[in-house]
Amino acid sequence: MFFTVVNSMMLVEWLFIVFVLILYFYFGRRSRMLLKELKKKEIIAKIDKAREEAMLGSIGDGVVATDKNGAIIFVNKAAQEMIAWDDSMVGKRLGDISLLSDETGKHVSIEKHPLHQCLVKRKKIISTNYHFVKKGQMDLAVYISAMPIFLKDEIIGAIEVFRDITQEKEIDRIKSEFVFLASHQLRTPLSTINWYVEMLMSGDAGPINDEQRNYLKEVYDGNQRMVEMVNDLLNVSRLDLGTLAVQLVPVDLQNLIEEEIKANQPSIEDKKMHTNCEVSSEIKGVETDIKMVKMLLQNLITNAIKYTPAGGKIDIKVMPSGKKEYTLSVADNGYGIPQAAKEKIFTKLYRAENVMAKEITGTGLGLYMVKSIVEKLQGKIWFESEVDKGTTFFVSFPIKPVIKKKTISI
Ligand code: ADP
Asked: What spacing in Å lies between the alpha carbon of 11 and ligand 1's midpoint?
């Protein structure tokens, strides 16, 4: 009896030992397998990371990644070369260290840096107007695209890609030079046509009948449109080439505006339109470039006339906006700018469909010119518009702009 009890106890112990051994071998093997798996995953992750870094690193464009505060966490090789990178720059903000200048050579503050802007505005920012200034070297014209990185709805960082576009800019310059020369050469024959058609219409070369006069009128009007287009092309190429140097002089804005309204008096009377001009007496000591502001006013006022039906109203105002700024507004109650056209309205040659459908002639160069003038005079331009209700263009300028010549100093 006693032995039977002892034997069964030993059997239980043995069974327990066998069970523990099975558990040890089974789970030991399993945990070793899990460990192996983990190591494998770690190695794959490392390879993936290295591959991604190698891919980003070997992109020909500059790539900079930052955290949500704009502090740099990654810079690829191309970017390092473009911004004369050194390792002490890790953790700093790109706007603080990259010597970014605008087209006039003015340093771009961190608030205006595309990377900063994309984090603040939570959207992609693209710019082709900036230059990186490399130590001891010529500046580098760059295309910059900055994009916030979202995780669900939260911004976790940003990525900026930039490309050297010095060559493209040079090609653009050559194209502008060609347009400038071609339009310059076209002016003389067009003036000759004008001159002779006017002579024929006035009967200087003998009497003409009504049918002939109508044909000549068609030639004259077509030629006038061509003159307008050639003049616009000439001015656009001058602005693009930068051959129109800004010359700041004291001006009387009221006078300038009234002169432009007067220059448009025939079409204002033709369409029986009403104009109103109001310049606040608080605005004193304005300095600007007369030629450029005349061009700007001419474009905004002729547009307001062209794109407003007969009997409409144009309201021009100049009001202070802040201590050192004024805002000019040109309002009409015309056809308006459709929502779909708003993004593209300042682009070269763009015309909105609603006015094209009405067969109103134009070149699509006016607002592009206006925008370049505003940029040259350090102003801002924007507009409000509703289809068939009207449009107001606003332009704000510093009372005394400080225009820097394009100099690079580091
Ligand atoms: P253009 O008048 O020669 O077509 P602009 O560059 O001056 O060229 O204007 C571009 C386009 O913007 C116009 O074709 C028109 O569609 C729109 N636009 C400009 N000003 C106005 C305005 N005051 N009212 C409505 N549309 C306008």
From this structure: 100
